[in-house]
Every structure is written in C-alpha cells, then in structure tokens.
Design a protein that fits this description.
Blueprint lengths: L2 H12 L9 E6 L5 E6 L2 H11 L9 E5 L5 E5 L1 H11 L5 E4 L3 E5 L5 E5 L5 E6 L9 E6 L4 E5 L5 H9 L6 H8 L5 E7 L4
Antiparallel strand pairs: 1-2, 1-3, 3-4, 5-6, 6-7, 8-9, 8-11, 9-10
C-alpha cells in the first residue's frame, strides 16, 4: 500500500477517536464498503481478532488493519497473508541478513521477504507471553508496504540488533523495557522523521 493509501486508512481509524494508552485498534474493510473498529488492551487479543475477522474467501477478501495507541499502522493483510506470516514467526530456521541497501528475512522453507533501508519507517519490539516454550521477542520492521518480523532467535539477529540500535534517534530505553517484559506488548524504538 502506498503512502496515500496508508494515510486514508489511518484517517478512517481516527474517526473513532483516540485509542487508550497502551491499547490497540483493529479495523476491517468489509466487502460492502463499510468498516468495523474494535479496541483492545491486549496485543495478543488484537492480533487474534484481525486474523479471525479477515475473510477466508479469496474471491471477496476482507482486509484487516491493526494500529497502535498513536494510530500508527503496525499490521495489515488478508486472513491468508496474516495467518501465513504468524505461522512463519514461530518456525525454526529463520535467518536475517542485511547490507547497505536492504534487510532480508528467510524462513525454514526458503521464503524471503526484503525491505530497503530507505523504505524503513518504524522499528518496534514485540514481546509475547509465549516464552520460554516459543519465541517471545520479535523485531517488527515497518514500511508502507511491508512488515518484517524477526524473532530474537533468528540467525543474524545479533548483528541486526546492533545496526538498528545505532540509528539516530533510536529509543534505547524502550528496548531495555522490551527485553525485561514477559507480557504481550509492542514497544516503539524508532520512527523515521518525516520532512
């Protein structure tokens, strides 16, 4: 989705007023052109909701969006795309690589997603209550068109973490808070300054 489309979606989400501090707003675009909004205090519940309400009908896909407390878009997609991405987070064998131009993430089945540094708009750390049995800390790297999810256990994550934390304006205090959190929460660590 381009920048203009993202702005229109965010404007639609704002019509319901502010989101409670630490909360999340899920929004779905329905096949009839309408929208549905639901607010949550738990990130896990919000993620489950947008997966469940996004249509499983490929002929009439229902798009779902998830916003943080500042109404910044942090997740989007159809049911199939969201479920596939969520499943991939918890699969062993994830590897992250990066160079001067881009960051790429590959999963155990060889699928690769890439994001150019120039596209990067936001860096978040997602924590879940799933540990220690499952991965419970993830980097979420956002652009208008893509969200890359990098589990802390991914090969190459330590080098990526050093590169991300070296960006000007990176919020090291929020990263420290994330590393000590065992609940479902999303921490904002960096946002590109729009000029």
């Amino acid at each position: 989705m381009g920048g203009d489309g993202g702005d229109l979606i965010a404007d639609e989400a704002r019509k319901r007023g502010p989101v409670a501090r630490g909360g999340y707003r899920a929004m779905t675009l329905l096949p009839d052109g309408g929208t549905e909004h639901v607010d949550f205090t738990s990130l896990a519940e919000a993620l489950r909701y947008i997966e469940d309400v996004a249509s499983e009908d490929e002929d009439e896909p229902t798009l779902a969006y998830l916003f943080d407390e500042n109404l910044r878009l942090i997740e989007q997609g159809t049911h199939y795309a969201l479920r596939k991405r969520r499943d991939a987070w918890f699969r062993d064998g994830t590897e992250v690589r990066f160079g001067e131009d881009a960051i790429s993430v590959s999963d155990a089945e060889g699928r690769i997603e890439a994001l150019a540094w120039s596209e990067l708009d936001g860096i978040y750390v997602l924590t879940t209550s799933g540990g220690p049995i499952a991965d419970d800390v993830f980097w979420v790297l956002c652009s208008d068109r893509l969200r890359l999810h990098v589990p802390q256990t991914a090969a190459g994550e330590d080098a990526l973490a050093r590169a991300l934390s070296a960006l000007p304006g990176f919020d090291h205090e929020n990263l420290i808070r994330a590393m000590s959190c065992s609940d479902d929460h999303l921490f904002t660590c960096w946002r590109r300054v729009k000029v």
